[in-house]
Design a protein that fits this description.
There is one protein chain. By secondary structure, the chain is α+β, with helices and mostly antiparallel strands. 22% of the residues lie in helices and 30% in strands. It is built from seven helices and 20 strands. The strands form four sheets. The chain has a seven-stranded mixed sheet, with helices on both faces. Strands 1-5-6-4-3-2 form a six-stranded mixed sheet, with no helix packed on it. A hairpin with a 6-residue loop joins β8 and β9 (141-143). α1 runs parallel beside α7. The model is unreliable at 374-379 (pLDDT under 50).
């Protein structure tokens, strides 16, 4: 069966119509005519794979990865990097328009860097002495010798791994070149700009050090431009953002639910002599009493699920002058902006290509308090 692909969906799959149903086709690009194999069909939609490219797109490239057709780690390695960035910009615009329901939001140009060898972390799986990634939608192991997304120092390290553990997590410390190996349960030091951070196995730390520094510099610029003095850093992880922007501020309070991350944050406070930073352990929604009017700026970097409604209600109650929202999911970002828009206006949204060759995109949103707005209860 041959079909014409009209556009990409937000997961990087080609969209077409088959039997009067919308169909999502992997490994297919807009304006291509492809041969399709159907893998799933229900009442509303069809899923399939492009088994042969009859008329290729001018934006199609040959993947250099020998595992690409089997591994689920990348979705866009057949698309030129220039078009990948355009796709992610358009994706953010469409999702924010749909879920935030706000007219005339400025979406700035996407920030990007190198498409390969950017990852400082990898999770590997081991079954029957085979170590690698899971095959798409299965628990079958694809043994790998190297990965084009990984920093080459991690690729060199994984060649010599010999373990009985079912899961192995590796992290690389940039500048130090230290490698955290979860089978050894060690800690490493990594840098963002001139700040250094201790990282443990369970602690969250961005996987793309280059883009993270660009993102944090953007946050620091906004914090400095707003003359922020007292700052809340919610979902603070190892304290990376709070410490990065803490110079010449009165006080920064970070809240995080992972104990190992908070332990690292307290160590990172010492490593950077950030005496004006305090870190507390707990779920943000359980510590809303800490979210008070003394904070003029709030930075949030929540998990993919976005902000808890109790947190949004508390932010609308204390009305900080500025909210800086770091999001790894434009859908939950749009939903949360829809709940904040009554009291806040969006200065801009800037996409960051933190995860090249995948459909994922990071966003930074800067919100400023509108004048004369009353509190809203979302309970």
């Amino acid at each position: 069966m041959q079909v014409l692909i009209t556009k990409l969906d937000h997961y990087g799959r080609g969209i077409t119509k088959i039997n009067d149903k919308i169909a999502f086709i992997e490994n297919a690009l807009p304006n291509e005519i492809v041969e399709v194999s159907i893998t799933k069909e229900n009442k509303k939609y069809i899923e399939g794979n492009a088994t042969k490219i009859i008329t290729p797109s001018k934006n199609r490239i040959n993947s250099l990865c020998p595992y690409y057709q089997e591994c689920g780690g990348c979705q866009l390695d057949h698309l030129s990097f220039k078009e990948e960035n355009k796709f992610k910009e358009q994706k953010v615009k469409e999702i924010i328009s749909k879920f935030a329901k706000i007219d005339k939001i400025e979406i700035k140009d996407i920030i990007f860097d190198e498409p390969y060898h950017y990852r400082n972390k990898v999770t590997l799986h081991q079954v029957n002495h085979k170590i690698g990634y899971y095959k798409k939608k299965t628990n079958t192991i694809i043994p790998i010798k190297s990965c084009n997304l990984l920093n080459n120092k991690l690729n060199d390290y994984l060649k010599n791994i010999n373990t009985k553990n079912q899961e192995v997590i590796l992290r690389l410390g940039n500048k130090t070149n230290e490698i955290l190996d979860s089978t050894k349960d060690n800690k490493i030091i990594s840098y963002i700009g001139n700040k250094k951070y201790q990282i443990s196995k369970q602690s969250f730390f961005q996987v793309n050090s280059t883009i993270t520094e660009k993102l944090y510099n953007n946050i620091k610029e906004e914090v400095n431009n707003s003359n922020a003095k007292n700052i809340l850093d919610l979902y603070c992880g190892t304290g990376t953002i709070g410490i990065y922007i803490s110079d010449r501020k009165n006080h920064v309070l970070g809240i995080e639910s992972c104990k190992e991350a908070i332990d690292d944050a307290k160590k990172n406070k010492e490593l950077n002599n950030a005496k004006n930073c305090t870190f507390k352990l707990g779920k943000v929604e359980d510590l809303t009493q800490e979210i008070s009017k003394k904070y003029d700026t709030v930075i949030v970097d929540p998990p993919r699920s976005g902000l808890n409604k109790k947190v949004i209600s508390k932010l609308l109650e204390i009305t900080p002058n500025t909210i800086i929202y770091v999001s790894c999911d434009p859908v939950t970002l749009g939903r949360d902006l829809n709940n904040l828009k009554e009291k806040y206006e969006i200065k801009y949204i800037r996409p960051y290509n933190m995860f090249p060759r995948t459909y994922h995109v990071e966003c930074l949103t800067v919100l400023h308090l509108k004048k004369n707005k009353k509190s809203i209860d979302l309970k």
